[in-house]
Design goal:
The complex is a heterodimer of chains A (250) and B (291). Helix content of chain A is 38%, strand content 27%. Chain A is built from 10 helices and 10 strands. In chain A, the strands form 2 sheets. In chain A, strands 6-7-8-3-9-10 form a 6-stranded mixed sheet, sandwiched between helices. The radius of gyration of chain A is 18 Å and the shape is globular. In chain B, strand 1 and strand 2 form a beta hairpin. Chain B has a two-stranded antiparallel sheet. Chain B is an all-alpha fold and 291 residues long. Helix content of chain B is 74%, strand content 1%. Chain B folds into 2 domains: 40 residues; 240 residues, MetI-like fold. The chains are: A alpha/beta (250), B mainly alpha (291).
Chain lengths: 250, 291
């Protein structure tokens, strides 16, 4: 139990009539990088967004089953306190059109931190964790939109870290970035996995293999295979997985 | 070669249309102002703007528009006080909380509202609202046709525009901004006040200004239900005579070339000046939106 963060049991997700996730049951290890892969429309983004209940915003969305975060049921929990523990970074960098400092203190402030000194400390800590501090420490009052795409994405990671979550969900975080910025984020993900559980959806299988400890392979709403990345790449147990891996490699 | 000629003629046509429009606009400005300023040969600008005595048909006629201006401002002000908060609530509900069905239903109602001819609204105010005001505020109301009545009717007129523009402004805020805020654990209320409204700010100000412009220029409703008394109101239940209703009510009776005639044109200039200022502010806001 110590090293499991999410226990997912018989999770089913529907959008209206569409059955988007089918009987997903698994346990996600704590403080590891878990990559979620599969062809487009397989439900991997849906799966990620169930974990912090981002899908609640969609009117036709329904779910059954259970997801426990460190033993607590998340599907009935207050979404606000769930999202404080399960942060998210999106596909396209989406900093607020505010200063860099305001971006990383927005989260703490909505959760009631008022002390300026404390907010400054949080800003520094989060920006350091996101490997952005050295680049921006002299321009914290500048508008975040002036940063480069890669910097913006790292700022978004810092923003997510500012509320000290347990889990960081990354939804294709590098698909809008150039190779060098991508490399920086990948290195960052590795560093962060020492303190945080990271679940990353990616279209880029190479990336998944480079950075993940565990691999989840989804196919048309089904969790086909979930194991260590090493095990899956050397010896996949389901033919659909090996087809997918081969298809990408060849 | 042929394509070039087509392109050229299209260019000429567009330029001509643009030119024609600006000629018409400036023509209106010119004629209005050239007639309007002639009032100052007989009334000093100071008396015209700052005297509250509008007695155009007396033997010793006086042409001070302050009371008329006060009428316009009081009616417009109260309308904004009613319509802006209500409009905000509606717009936020439509943009963020309504389901598809309730959204469509409310939108439909607003579209119907926007289609009500102002003379119909005026009749409604004249017959029902005035009586309702008399019955419910008997201590304060000595005529049912007053600032309050006009503002209520004008609110009905302004709400559809205002709500639509504010809703559009809120919807124009990228969805990922809202998601980023929610993903940090903010609730919907916090997200609306800290992210959506600030980012929609210029659109919202634009909505307020365009709505105000429409209210100031509206004539038929105020002519019918504002009461028509040339006085500076001291309560919201006093009757007033806004600038527009003075022009509409008196233009038909006035002798061409008289001081009264020129004074009415000058009132038109004042109205035009107010709306031009508002429009310029709105344009500036729109331009700064891109930043």
């Amino acid at each position: 139990m110590e090293d499991t963060i999410f226990v997912i049991d018989e999770l089913n997700v529907f959008y209206g009539e569409k059955h988007a996730l089918k009987d997903v049951t698994c346990e996600i290890p704590r403080r590891k990088v878990t990559a979620v892969v599969g062809p487009s429309g397989c439900g991997k983004s849906t799966f990620l967004r169930v974990l912090n209940r981002m899908n609640d915003l969609i009117p036709t969305y329904r779910h059954t089953g259970s997801i426990k975060l460190l033993g607590k049921e998340t599907l009935t929990m207050d979404a606000v306190s769930l999202r404080k523990q399960v942060g998210m970074v999106f596909q396209k960098p989406n900093p607020f059109p505010k200063t860099i400092q305001d971006n990383v203190t927005y989260g703490p402030r909505i959760h009631g931190v008022k002390n300026r000194q404390r907010l400054k400390e949080i800003a520094e800590r989060s920006l350091k964790q996101a490997a952005l501090w050295d680049e921006v420490k002299d321009e914290l009052k500048k508008n975040a939109l002036n940063l480069s795409g890669g910097q913006q994405q790292r700022l978004c990671i810092a923003r997510a870290l500012s509320v000290e979550p347990e889990v960081l969900l990354l939804d294709e975080p590098t698909s809008a970035l150039d190779p060098i910025a991508t490399q920086k984020i990948e290195k960052l993900i590795e560093e962060l996995s020492e303190r945080y559980t990271i679940i990353i959806v990616t279209h880029n299988l190479q990336q998944a293999l480079r950075i993940s400890d565990y691999l989840m392979f989804f196919y048309v709403g089904e969790l086909v295979e979930f194991d260590t990345t090493e095990k899956i790449t050397t010896n996949p147990s389901d033919p659909r997985t090996s087809d997918y891996l081969r298809g990408i490699f060849s | 070669m042929r394509r070039k000629r087509v392109e050229l003629s299209a260019k000429v046509l567009v330029t001509f249309a643009a030119l024609l429009t600006s000629i018409i606009v400036f023509g209106i400005f010119y004629f209005l102002i050239s007639d309007g300023v002639r009032v100052f040969g007989r009334v000093s600008p100071k008396d015209f703007l700052f005297s509250a005595r509008w007695y155009p048909t007396y033997e010793d006629a006086e042409f001070g528009i302050l009371a008329l201006l006060a009428g316009t401002l009081s009616v417009t002000g109260l309308t904004l006080v009613i319509a802006i908060p209500l409009g905000f609530v509606c717009a936020i509900f439509l943009a963020e909380f309504s389901g598809r069905k309730s959204h469509d239903a409310i939108k439909y109602i607003f579209e119907l509202m926007a289609g009500i001819p102002s003379v119909v609204l005026g009749s409604f105010g004249l017959k029902y609202v005035s009586r309702w005001l008399m019955e419910h505020f008997p201590l304060h109301v000595w005529t049912g046709l007053n600032v309050m009545n006009a503002s209520l009717m004008l609110s009905i007129l302004a709400m559809p525009y205002f709500v639509t523009l504010v809703e559009d402004a809120l919807r124009a805020v990228p969805r990922d901004q809202k998601e980023a805020s929610l993903a940090l654990g903010a609730n919907m209320t916090g997200t609306i006040f800290r992210i959506l409204l600030p980012q929609a700010r210029s659109g919202i100000l634009n909505a307020i200004i365009l709505g105000t412009n429409r209210v100031i220029g509206e004539t038929m409703v105020v002519l019918m239900v504002a009461g028509g008394a040339t006085m500076v109101p001291s309560t919201i239940f006093d009757p007033v005579r806004p600038l527009t209703s003075a022009i509409a009510g008196e233009m038909g009776e006035v002798e061409l070339g008289s001081t009264h005639y020129f004074a009415l044109f000058m009132i038109g200039v004042v109205l035009l000046a107010i709306s031009t200022v508002f429009t310029l502010i709105a344009m500036k806001l729109k331009r700064s939106k891109g930043k």
